[in-house]
Amino acid sequence: MSVEYAVPETRPVAWTRRHLLGLEDLSRGEIETILDSAEGFVEAGQARRKKPADLKGKVVVTLFFEPSTRTRASFGLAARRLGADTIDFTTGGSSLSKGETFIDTAKNIEALGVDVMVVRHAVPGAPHLLAQHLKCGIVNAGDGAHEHPTQGLLDIFTIRRLKGRLEGLTVGLVGDIAHSRVARSNIHGLLKLGARVIVCGPSTLVPQGIDRLGVEVAHRLDDILPQCDVINVLRIQFERQRSGLFPSIHEYARLFGMDSQRLRRAKPDILLLAPGPINRGVEVTPEVADGPHSAILQQVTNGLAVRMAVLALLCGQPGAEG
Ligand code: CP
Q1: Tell me, what's the pLDDT at 43?
Q2: pLDDT tens, 68-126?
Q3: Is residue 320's pLDDT more than 50?
Q4: Residue 52 pLDDT more than 90?
Q5: Least-confidence region, from 46-50, 69-73, 290-294
Q6: Are 152 and 137 in contact (CB under 8 A)?
Q7: Cα(141)–Cα(118) distance, integer angstroms
Q8: Which helix (H) or strand (E) holds 45?
Q9: Whose CA is nearest to atom 4 of ligand 1?
């Protein structure tokens, strides 16, 4: 399933930011600048060749204080495809165990000549703190339950590529909204680009007042499913939850899990996204996750182009225009 995306309705704007900390901060034009730049990197990513807008001589570090499979690997590959040198920092084996602070750790890594630092941390605002204390560009790769802007961008980019537009689409964000940084980045980005967003989950996993962001709120997936063009299923974040936020995993899967039976009641061209990792059999059954409506692995592939675009823009490379 692939269609040409429609010509954007607003003109992309010149990129002037040093950091990418969240989609809440960005204008519609800035988001479209990243998405349009990413179009120019899709081929470079797939063709396994470097773009002329390379980052030769630049240094990109991934500084991850939480586990990651997709984001860390994707940023590392994006930086190398652009010709940058890379440093991959993880907490295991680092001097954090000797009492070195978060900021001292980041400053010492920066002193190696880093141009862009890609940061993941369990505490909301941690990348923003580094942006205040360091001179290099900072990318938020996930800060607690706050934002994960490049995941939001790659989700939106995938929808735009496969649906041809964002304006007027109805996107359902289903599951653990309360603990999901991906939900927040999707909400900010999708609303700015003209989509309708419905968040859906058990009332214990949907924060009070989230409608103030401009989304609609639902607690029964079967009520909203027929209206949705896209469903983005969010992982139940067992590691961030207190116990008892829903009766049982079986009950959650019955009420909110995307399975074949439920899919038959959706629009025939419904697009299924999931940021990953997925709990197979909880948010989504294996036959749906691996089925024809799913773009889960395309999201990962598109993430490479999006992250190449982000790194190139932050480093001021004109070739990021494609
Ligand atoms: N979607 C996402 O952020 O995945 P990782 O935690 O594996 O990076």
Answers
A1: 78
A2: 999 999 999 999 999 999 999 999 889 998 999 999 999 999 999 999 999 999 999 99
A3: no
A4: no
A5: 46-50
A6: no
A7: 6
A8: helix 28-46
A9: 70
CA of 186 to the centre of ligand 1 (A): 15
CA-73 nearest atom, ligand 1? 8
Which residues sit with their C-beta closer than 6 Å to ligand 1? Answer: 68-71, 142, 148, 151, 275-277
Q: Which atom of ligand 1 is nearest to the CA of 74?
A: 8
Give the predicted TM-score (pTM) of the model: 0.92
What would you report as the CA-atom Rg of the chain, rounded to the nearest whole angstrom?
Answer: 19
DSSP letter string over 252-266?
HHHHH-B-HHHHTTS
List C-alpha distances in Å: 201 to 181, 219, 298, 317: 15, 5, 25, 41
| Best CA proximity match to 192, nearest among 162, 167, 159, 227 | 167
Taking Cα atoms as reference points, which of 295, 317, 284 lies closest to residue 78?
Answer: 317
Tokens representing 181 are: 């940084």
Give the three-state DSSP class for 124: coil
Euclidean distance between CA atoms 143 and 18, whole angstroms: 18
Ligand 1 centre from 10 Cα, in Å? Answer: 30
> For 228-251, how does the pLDDT look when each residue is reduced to its tens digit (9 = 90+)?
999 999 988 776 666 667 768 888
DSSP conformational letter for 5: P
